[in-house]
Design brief:
Elements lengths: L7 H4 L14 H17 L7 E10 L7 H19 L10 H12 L6 H22 L8 H23 L17 E4 L7 E12 L2 E8 L9 H12 L5 E3 L7 H9 L3 E2 L11 H31 L10 H48 L1
Parallel strand pairs: 1-5, 5-6
Antiparallel strand pairs: 1-3, 2-3, 3-4
Helix pairs in contact: 3-4, 3-5, 3-6, 4-5, 5-6
């Protein structure tokens, strides 16, 4: 009801035959099944409706991550674990003041060189390795919260050491926040920010109502969600969409073949050379431009969600609550749209009734 999608064909489906009905013979059953298949093919509804697809990133409220700041935070948390697990007077030497001084030497430098960065990373990695060695024998004495945090720091240390030794800036499942280790960098290539940190949402728009097709904390190629979105559309409405308005990233060979088999037209330039007929080619360009303008509706929905419904920055700290907050924002958007439609219908009927009453009074007065 909220998404405005309904399957009338599922509602009008025939009920199961009663148990008292006599069983059909094999030949009769085979003939009836063949007739049923022919009728189903003849009565198969035609495609209708427009499905608009796109994806966006939902930023999470975390500090902008840098390698040196993550290592410094990890070192400070390890020092706190050492203070809590070791009794006073028996704490191992952690050189925390020297480590803090080495970090500030880089952090307060306005124009740090690459040599100073490498030197600071190497020192922080050595401090963390020393503290991890101290805590390796007393893991059982740590609290459950500290044990989970220790596991995250161990993974972070392994990733940072691998990138330091290889001289690279990429690693699989890179941790960018110790308090929210499930957050991943999402490379978007936008003008405002080339990389965003949060979850990636693939959504579809039908009749102005937004629906989340996939929500993941790992980056994914949104083209793989087209078939899933189309099948969800069919499950909701009972038919395939007549056309799909999507970005070029959705136009891979697998999706094009999938749409061709089901009679779905997908927006974008056709494969192959342009037609020799200039009039036909100009008409195709105008149609592509018009559909590109219609596709902006989903971009508008994303903008409204980020400007008015707090999708521009998720403030929740847990993974589950962050996902719930995103779904609630989309649900609120759809509810507000449905409420505006209902209020518009109510206002129109009220005005029609008032106009009819005025006409009636005027006709009585004239008579």
């Amino acid at each position: 009801f909220i998404a405005g999608r309904r399957n009338p064909y599922a509602e009008n489906a025939d009920d199961d035959p009663p148990d008292s009905a006599p069983p059909d013979t094999p030949s009769e059953g085979t003939a009836k099944s063949a007739d049923t298949q022919e009728l189903n093919q003849m009565e198969q509804p035609a495609n209708r409706g427009t499905l608009i697809l796109d994806a966006t990133c939902i930023p999470q409220d975390i500090r902008y991550p840098t390698d040196i700041s993550l290592l410094n935070e990890a070192r400070e948390r390890l020092e706190g674990m050492i203070d809590r697990v070791f009794p006073k007077g028996r704490k191992p030497r952690s050189y925390r003041k020297i480590a803090r001084r080495d970090y500030l030497r880089y952090a307060k430098n306005r124009r740090p060189s690459l040599k100073l960065l490498r030197k600071s990373l190497r020192k922080q990695l050595s401090y963390i390795a020393r503290n991890l060695g101290y805590l390796s024998d007393v893991k059982a004495n740590l609290s459950l919260k500290d044990q989970k945090q220790l596991q995250v720091i161990e993974v972070l240390y392994t990733q940072q050491k691998q990138m330091y030794e290889q001289g690279s800036k990429r690693v699989t499942d890179r941790i960018v926040s110790l308090s929210q280790p499930w957050v991943r960098p999402i490379v978007r290539g936008k003008a405002k920010a080339a990389v965003e940190f949060g979850s990636k949402m693939a959504a579809s728009l039908v009749n102005g109502y937004l629906r989340i097709d996939r929500l993941s904390w790992d980056n994914f190629q949104e083209g793989i969600t087209l078939q899933e979105s189309v099948e969800s559309y069919r499950a909701d409405t009972g038919v395939y969409p007549e056309r799909i308005l999507a970005d070029k990233v959705y136009r891979n060979r697998e999706n094009l073949q999938y749409c061709k088999e089901r009679g779905i037209r997908i927006s974008g330039p056709k494969l192959g050379r342009p037609p020799k007929d200039k009039k036909l080619y100009r008409q195709q360009l105008l149609e592509e431009r018009r559909e590109s303008g219609e596709r902006n509706a989903v971009e508008s929905a994303f903008g409204v969600g980020k400007r008015r419904y707090s999708l521009n920055l998720v403030m929740e700290r847990l993974r589950e609550t962050s996902e719930v907050a995103i779904h609630v924002c989309v649900l609120t958007m759809n509810l507000w749209r449905r409420l505006k439609e209902l209020l518009f219908v109510l206002l129109r009927r009220t005005l029609q009734a008032a106009i009819g009453y005025i006409k009636l009074v005027y006709s009585i007065g004239m008579s």
